[in-house]
């Protein structure tokens, strides 16, 4: 069912909203687009009123890894709208036409735009929703709104980003109320045990900003820890941007492993594969994740592997090796120095321990999903789990709850990988998924009263958020 044609009951206006999205990355941006396009096709009584909370001061997506020349690993056709509605005005092709680059892009004969261009596309989409996004604020709690013993809505408590959650209520703490919440809080950096970031120890999330600000480099050396795409891109970037420095690639594998982007394997990213995965028994789910982990996790684009190998070989021929690949090597410790950082590494084959004094140690060690229950407080007790303690999530991305909760809690992102498969944290199915959540919101209105306005919850003292305007698409 398309979001534009789902059936829903008419309802009277009230001072609350239908939906609050927590986080405004690509996933909730795609949902905002699906809602926008639904509203453009329906009558006023069936419109969905939505708003979003985002801790960043403006839209941004992996800004620290917008490295010059890096390209997407996913086709431009897997944008925020095409797979759901190729005629949408939010497609990447429509963006190119609006920017005056459609013919130029076609002449490239490539399915893969640069990461910088795709980020510009995402920002172009996000620009149309500025009146619906509370930028610079973070959600610190989701509280139940109870009526007659049932939870039929939520209060989302927000504070200025970075103000902390120490229990004190800032003067401008605000509470937003809606009938459903969509948790799209993304990922947090994974760090090696015992290692913390600092002035000269960076996660790749901050690479570009930290590298551009680095002025003192007494050691003329960088160490990059990790064997995935971000690690390889970081090695290539530092090797290119700092031609007087040695770059050490540190990982426990023998070498970089290529990503499997063959046509049959890529079917794991199809929307229909989500249906197959969701219906499969748990042992089959685990097998599929294992079989196809090499399409996404700890793997590198084949062309980049070849590029790095050529660079290392040519330096060996010239007798001036700057790119050093330390395979089968583990990072055992990192120590901040007054003017850099020391990485202690150990060879897994010989046991030899080396100390690498670096201008910076870059941790390309990936991310871990944020547990959606962290925001829910006591509401988490109403969320049903499986035998492994993981959230039970419906095919429509709604968390299964006790009967006491009639309002919807939806999850976007890696927290749903165990139920919806490998695409949960990726771009590939965002367009279709956003339509599924939109449909679920509409269908859920049939048996209950639903909210249609949006504003601050009564009595919270927060500044008015203003109405959520709907612009026809």
Q: Could you please describe the fold and organization of this structure?
A:
The structure is a single chain. Helix 1 (26-41) packs across helix 11 (430-443). The strands form 4 sheets. Strands 1, 2, 3, 4, 5, 6 and 17 form a 7-stranded mixed sheet that branches. It contains 11 helices and 17 strands. Residues 1-15 and 446-473 have low confidence and may be disordered. It is α/β, with parallel strands linked by helices. It starts with 16 loop residues before the first strand and ends in a 30-residue tail after the last helix. The longest helix has 17 residues, at 302-318. Strand 12 and strand 13 (340-347) form a beta hairpin.
Write the layout of secondary structure elements.
Elements: E1 17-22, H1 26-41, E2 50-54, H2 92-99, H3 102-108, H4 115-126, E3 133-135, E4 137-147, E5 150-160, E6 174-183, E7 187-189, E8 201-203, H5 207-212, E9 221-225, H6 229-241, E10 246-250, H7 271-279, H8 282-291, H9 302-318, E11 323-326, E12 329-337, E13 340-347, E14 353-358, E15 360-363, E16 367-369, E17 408-411, H10 417-420, H11 430-443
Parallel strand pairs: 1-2, 1-6, 2-3, 6-17, 8-15, 9-10, 9-15, 10-11
Antiparallel strand pairs: 4-5, 5-6, 7-16, 12-13, 13-14
